């Protein structure tokens, strides 16, 4: 083939790839292409492990474990309004986790690469994942890639490439650090395409107290190209954010201001949702114990 034609085709495919990741809308989710029409898509509806029903679709996996590395390190980085979300990219590259479960032979290390948020003008529809059909006000995603790969881009195409920790939020009346620090910065990135430097908080401080009790399932990126390469971790305990802080997110200029920045829940298609334990439910004192240990079965 003529080298010039080859070059033209190469440029065209690169443009296509980058266009796919930029030119999409939450308005027409049904038309998202390729992997977005697959069988292991995210987000999904999670059964509430603390209010079990007879036909509960969660299995206990007592080998599920999450260890955090350098989550207590003070972050430095950039917060950007890209029109689809507000994303924080750290300067540090040493932060990560170790993840163990029954389905992986050895514990796997993942490198933290960015966090971002999903929200909606309506407080009751902000999160992507729902619990027993109920959405929460906001959802935080901490994105990690398998440390055996060189970059997020490379890992995102591999079966064992990505791990995302999801945190659901309930509203409260009192401002809560470090979210106050983040939302105070939002006024500097109110327009799409703007960026600001932020510092002074740790990843650990973004999480609720309990990160031992969580759900895990195999899913996908929740935005195009929807790669089905994500191990999802959803913490059982909710984080809190004040109504005022939430309104700072809702006041940002975004590309789809009226529909909310989150995808509809997707069918499980036979996938299993696992839980690390149900200890957190003991704190709530509202539950009946009885998750069956997946490893003992
Ligand atoms: Zn996300």
Heteromolecules bound = zinc ion
From N to C, what is the helix and strand string? HEEEEEEEEEEHEHEEEEHEH
Average predicted confidence as pLDDT = 87
The CATH architecture name reads Roll
Briefly, what CATH class? Alpha Beta
Count of DSSP H/I helices: 5
**Assembly type:** single chain
How can the largest sheet be summarized? Answer: 13 strands, mixed
| Strand tally | 16
Helix content: 10-25%
Low-confidence stretches: 8-19
Which structural class fits the helix and strand makeup? alpha+beta
Please compute the radius of gyration using only Cα atoms: 19 Å
Shape: globular
Fourth-level CATH superfamily: Alpha carbonic anhydrase
Looking at the structure, the CATH topology is Carbonic Anhydrase II
Strand content: 25-35%
Measured distance between first and last alpha carbons: 58 Å
Counting structural domains, the number is 1
Summarize the structure.
With 297 residues, the protein is α+β, with helices and mostly antiparallel strands.
């Amino acid at each position: 083939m003529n080298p010039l034609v080859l070059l033209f085709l190469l440029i065209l495919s690169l443009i296509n790839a980058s266009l796919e990741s930029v030119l999409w809308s939450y308005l027409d989710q049904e038309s998202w292409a390729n992997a977005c029409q697959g069988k292991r898509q995210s987000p999904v509806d999670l059964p509430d492990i603390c209010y079990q029903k007879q036909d509960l679709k969660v299995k206990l996996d007592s080998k599920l474990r999450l260890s955090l590395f350098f989550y207590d390190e003070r972050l430095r980085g950039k917060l950007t309004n890209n029109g689809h979300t507000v994303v924080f990219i750290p300067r540090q590259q040493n932060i990560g986790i170790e993840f163990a479960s029954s389905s992986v032979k050895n514990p796997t290390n993942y490198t933290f690469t960015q966090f971002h948020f999903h929200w909606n003008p309506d407080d009751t529809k902000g999160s992507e994942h729902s619990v027993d059909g109920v959405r929460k006000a906001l959802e935080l995603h901490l994105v990690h890639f398998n440390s055996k790969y060189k970059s997020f881009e490379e890992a995102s195409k591999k079966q064992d490439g990505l791990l995302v920790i999801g945190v659901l939020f309930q509203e409260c009346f009192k401002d809560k650090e470090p979210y106050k620090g983040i939302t105070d910065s939002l006024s500097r990135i109110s327009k799409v395409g703007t960026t600001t430097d932020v510092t002074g908080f740790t990843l650990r401080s973004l999480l609720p107290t309990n990160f031992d009790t969580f759900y895990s399932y195999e899913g996908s990126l929740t935005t195009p190209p929807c790669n089905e390469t994500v191990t999802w971790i959803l913490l059982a305990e909710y984080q809190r954010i004040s109504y005022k802080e939430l309104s700072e997110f809702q006041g940002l200029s975004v590309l789809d201001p009226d529909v909310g920045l989150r995808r509809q829940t997707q069918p499980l298609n036979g996938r299993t949702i696992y839980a690390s334990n149900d200890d957190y439910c003991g704190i709530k004192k509202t539950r009946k114990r009885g998750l069956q240990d997946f490893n003992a079965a």
